[in-house]
Amino acid sequence: MVRNSSEILDVIIIGAGSAGLSALREVKKRTERFILINDGYWGTTCARVGCMPSKVLIEAANAFHYHTKLDAFGIRGAEHLSVDITQVMQRVRKLRDDFVNSTLKTTEALANRTISGRARLLGPTQVFINNQILSAKKIIIATGSRPIVPPNWQTLGKALLTTDNLFEQEKLPSSLAVIGMGPIGVELAQALSRLGIKVTGFGSHKLVGGLSDPYVNQVAVTLLSQEFPLYLGEKADLALGSKDNRLSVNAGSTTIVAEGILAALGRRPNIDDLGLETLGVPLDQHGLPPVNLATLQIADLPVFLVGDANNFSPILHEAADEGHIAGLNATRENIFCFKRRVPLNIVFSDPCIATVGSRFKLLKDREIVIGEVHFDNQGRARAAQRNKGIIRVYATAKSGQLLGAEMCAPAGEHMAHLLALAIDQSLTVWDLLRMPYYHPVLEEGLRTALRSLAAQLPERNESDLATCGAFNADALD
Ligand SMILES: Cc1cc2nc3c(=O)[nH]c(=O)nc-3n(C[C@H](O)[C@H](O)[C@H](O)COP(=O)(O)OP(=O)(O)OC[C@H]3O[C@@H](n4cnc5c(N)ncnc54)[C@H](O)[C@@H]3O)c2cc1C
Ligand SMILES: NC(=O)c1ccc[n+]([C@@H]2O[C@H](COP(=O)([O-])OP(=O)(O)OC[C@H]3O[C@@H](n4cnc5c(N)ncnc54)[C@H](O)[C@@H]3O)[C@@H](O)[C@H]2O)c1
């Protein structure tokens, strides 16, 4: 029998991932009349099967990969090093468990304010959960996303890996086709290859890792292809041999045989079966309702859609921001518009792929100037055997105001943060060139890109340190 709770809650939060927990933090400050509902495991995608375990795996892979550079430093014996995959995976899970436990503390303390189960909307103020109907003034939907797996791939059983089960593996197949070269595919294909697995990468787009600048992409593809075969531009599909039961991957004219598949085809918002159709607003072709990204409100309803579930920018800091905005707006009289942060996407490949500010594909029809640096001859990068990669920086042609950058560069994660701070502050290339650069650092490479950009701008007053030029000597720039 369905129970109809008589209590009218202030807020129901559906989904206890990073977005839901961020909303919870704000809701909790203002009311005790809330319920947090989560289906399946608690502990967030980020900590359980996302950002954190993937980064632990990548760190192990890069630590081992370093042995390929030792000989050049004059350090011998590296060929005797080997990877114990079982131990690597155990360490991934051990750290993963610590990360998950840290997130569980928040929700365990809530006791009867949490419900485990699959929630479904019955309208803008009602939720059906575990045979009962809950009513609330506001509802925050933070149901996250899941890996896309085509139906005919699901029959593969153990041979099919996604990020939902990869980190649970005790051992890994000796050969693996990584299908999809977005951020997840690139990060994991490189890491698994560096750990000694025979990886083949497939991507239906020519662009990898979320890049849109073809010049940066070309460098990224060239560098990744030096580590594992990479087939781009054709959709991959699978076939299981009828006689030998061998798994083959086909993409255009390419066919390879692999022991296992890692599907990294993208992620789908968890909005199916959620009852969004009961809200009475139009849904787009993906089933998504209209969401105001400055308020996270769905149309003018008392309902908010945040995090991966709205498919706007499925990365952690954006999910956390959206939860924060929705948590505030759901507990205030008036809805407030928030200015969103400068876009920043980092792929933890080596060299690091990153996009910051406006993407190249959105700028190419505007009047912009582009500064560029290749790291092949950059002094500090050469000293560290990290001299590979490129940064391209975009600015307005008139004033040199920084608009964005794309890169595949050593220390790219840090360069991208520096540029994000500069873009947020509406700085020009000259403003950045006026600031200090220590010597010898990788940031001098970024400065070279900025100088090449400044050289294309109208001339400046020479009494300004921003015009201090390069020595044109590898050792000094
Ligand atoms: C392998 C991988 C690596 C990543 N690496 C990075 C990275 O390095 N940096 C970065 O910024 N981002 C990264 N991301 C993305 C980041 O993890 C996500 O953007 C973020 O975790 C999304 O948080 P969320 O709260 O929207 O969703 P989630 O954390 O998935 O939370 C949603 C919750 O809602 C529950 N739920 C779903 N449907 C219902 C329902 N009907 N009723 C009740 N509960 C429901 C789910 O079970 C889940 O617990 C990575 C993702 C993956 C998969
Ligand atoms: N470091 C990070 O910040 C990080 C890391 C991992 C994931 N993420 C987030 O997770 C989201 C999902 O990442 P993702 O890489 O899974 O998705 P994605 O959508 O970015 O990339 C998936 C890729 O798979 C390709 N593809 C789809 N079907 C294919 C097929 N049959 N054959 C070959 N290629 C195929 C698509 O063309 C696409 O390029 C990202 O948007 C990102 O926001 C972020």
TrEMBL record:
<dbReference type="InterPro" id="IPR001100">
    <property type="entry name" value="Pyr_nuc-diS_OxRdtase"/>
</dbReference>
<dbReference type="GO" id="GO:0003955">
    <property type="term" value="F:NAD(P)H dehydrogenase (quinone) activity"/>
</dbReference>
<keyword id="KW-0520">NAD</keyword>
<keyword id="KW-0274">FAD</keyword>
<protein>
    <submittedName>
        <fullName>Dihydrolipoamide dehydrogenase</fullName>
    </submittedName>
</protein>
<dbReference type="InterPro" id="IPR036188">
    <property type="entry name" value="FAD/NAD-bd_sf"/>
</dbReference>
<dbReference type="InterPro" id="IPR004099">
    <property type="entry name" value="Pyr_nucl-diS_OxRdtase_dimer"/>
</dbReference>
<feature type="binding site">
    <location>
        <begin position="143"/>
        <end position="145"/>
    </location>
    <ligand>
        <name>FAD</name>
    </ligand>
</feature>
<dbReference type="InterPro" id="IPR016156">
    <property type="entry name" value="FAD/NAD-linked_Rdtase_dimer_sf"/>
</dbReference>
<feature type="disulfide bond" description="Redox-active">
    <location>
        <begin position="46"/>
        <end position="51"/>
    </location>
</feature>
<feature type="binding site">
    <location>
        <begin position="180"/>
        <end position="187"/>
    </location>
    <ligand>
        <name>NAD(+)</name>
    </ligand>
</feature>
<feature type="active site" description="Proton acceptor">
    <location>
        <position position="439"/>
    </location>
</feature>
<keyword id="KW-0547">Nucleotide-binding</keyword>
<feature type="binding site">
    <location>
        <position position="308"/>
    </location>
    <ligand>
        <name>FAD</name>
    </ligand>
</feature>
<dbReference type="Pfam" id="PF02852">
    <property type="entry name" value="Pyr_redox_dim"/>
</dbReference>
<keyword id="KW-0285">Flavoprotein</keyword>
<dbReference type="GO" id="GO:0050660">
    <property type="term" value="F:flavin adenine dinucleotide binding"/>
</dbReference>
<comment type="similarity">
    <text>Belongs to the class-I pyridine nucleotide-disulfide oxidoreductase family.</text>
</comment>
<feature type="binding site">
    <location>
        <position position="266"/>
    </location>
    <ligand>
        <name>NAD(+)</name>
    </ligand>
</feature>
<feature type="domain" description="Pyridine nucleotide-disulphide oxidoreductase dimerisation">
    <location>
        <begin position="346"/>
        <end position="449"/>
    </location>
</feature>
<dbReference type="Pfam" id="PF07992">
    <property type="entry name" value="Pyr_redox_2"/>
</dbReference>
<dbReference type="InterPro" id="IPR023753">
    <property type="entry name" value="FAD/NAD-binding_dom"/>
</dbReference>
<feature type="domain" description="FAD/NAD(P)-binding">
    <location>
        <begin position="10"/>
        <end position="321"/>
    </location>
</feature>
<feature type="binding site">
    <location>
        <position position="55"/>
    </location>
    <ligand>
        <name>FAD</name>
    </ligand>
</feature>
